[in-house]
Amino acid sequence: MNHHQSQNNDENQYFDHIEQTYYSNFLRRDVVLSIFLPHKKEPTPIQAAFFNDGQDMEAVQMYSTLNHLYDLKVINPIAVIGIHCSALRIDEYGCISSADYMNRGNKAHDFSRFVIEELIPYCRKSFNISTSPKDIAYAGFSLGGLSALDISWHYPQYFNKIGVFSGSFWWRDKPAEGDYNDDIDRIMHRTIQNSSKKEGLKFWLQTGTKDETSDRNNNGIIDSIDDTLDLIKELDKKGYDIHDDITYVEITDGEHNFYTWSAVLPNFLTWAFGGNDYVKTDRQQLAERRHKMWFHLDAMAEAPNVDIMLISDKFDMPQLGKKRAVWALLPKGWDSFSERYPVMYLHDAQNLFNKNAPFGMWGIHKVMSEMIDQGKKMIVIAIEHGDEERIEEFAPFADENGTGGSGKRYINFIVDTLVPYINRNFPSKQDRENTGIGGSSMGGLVSLYAGLYRPEAFGKYMIFSPSLWYSSKIFALAKRVTPFLKSMIYFYGGGKESETLIGEIEELIEILKDRGFEDHHLPLKINPEANHSEAVWGQEFEEAMNTLFY
């Protein structure tokens, strides 16, 4: 089989983390795999857990969790194989027997054949994984959890333990209205009803009391809990022991996101691979994991329409040879993939929605929540800056002291690595007219440079208080550009920032007009009383987004 391998190992840890790309004939695409293996090679075949949504292994802290649990000697040596989803996640996951009422999940059969006929044989051969189903688990989050249970149910000869984190058991073949009937129209429940008992299977099912707010039957219990408890009833009817075969974990204050799933991950892993004395999950552990992952309760409460997600705290930046935290701010319900949204890539994530940022915050999460109320939905991808390396990375050109000059590689990272990743894993509108980039100060400068250097990638630019003073080369570059693609560039400057800023922006705009940019595509907002601050830029964010996208 064709595969590409990259490896990131730490001699002081117990597990190796390997990334591979495997071509699937059933899916007709490359499938990225995040693989975690015991650092010390085991002489006998080892146990293994397969996870859907392998792209989220960093977000749920798989690597650190495995090492921690093994260090405590509460799990055996195991392999974990994380299967990255594609942009067709909503079609590849689901139930084999039937697509849902919107024809989502129509490729679930192909995905199951990939797992059973391609992936498992490959992993058995390559990583010394046991061939006994008693040693193998399959798990997933949300829709990936539904898929894991469905595949395990259809192929019990391959799996013994099933883990479902906040499973999408609402998956149905009729809209939840009219003649919809819970008893017959939920596809996974019906699949179990119409099957015989699958001997040997054991189930670990988790929900959170704040997974969602929907309650379609108005019984005072949110649907995610209702659907999971109803599934347990169906398993009970099939003869599974409610105590020995089924473990139900309901997390008080648990939500439908990675901080909850990362906090409960040790519970699942030790249930599956560590015997009966598995690690318990409590509210204190949730709070600690929430803090560690920088999910701020205040920010979540202030933006009820927005999911704030840490994609990775160590997102690989191969063009720079570094790793950096990358965040996504998304409209609630984005993971249904029922609609797609424009995307704005922003720098300086530390200052965008963290109230404890040293120089203040923009508060874009609150702005986005208000815009969603107005029907204006979008995705913001926020990239953390490199602290003392910030100027070096944002500067397109080196100064007279040789400082800076990594801006080209930074923009190449965004265009060639980050944008494709986002388009594969999130419901983004992928045309350049719906893709923007922006920032303030040095972030404004590097965003402007992105438009001059890689105009094929972005159609919208948000340039706040750009550091045009850094190098006159940005003006020289602008004089050479030819606008072969239409772009809109929103400029903003404060009258109390510097004596030269407004004049520099106006000079640049005139250069761009001379090169062929249309006047109405170069709006300029000047606030005579504004200084150079995060709070001011946050106040301008909504108008900029409305001008660029709406």
UniProtKB/TrEMBL annotation:
<dbReference type="Pfam" id="PF00756">
    <property type="entry name" value="Esterase"/>
</dbReference>
<dbReference type="InterPro" id="IPR029058">
    <property type="entry name" value="AB_hydrolase_fold"/>
</dbReference>
<dbReference type="InterPro" id="IPR000801">
    <property type="entry name" value="Esterase-like"/>
</dbReference>
<protein>
    <recommendedName>
        <fullName>Alpha/beta hydrolase</fullName>
    </recommendedName>
</protein>
<dbReference type="InterPro" id="IPR050583">
    <property type="entry name" value="Mycobacterial_A85_antigen"/>
</dbReference>
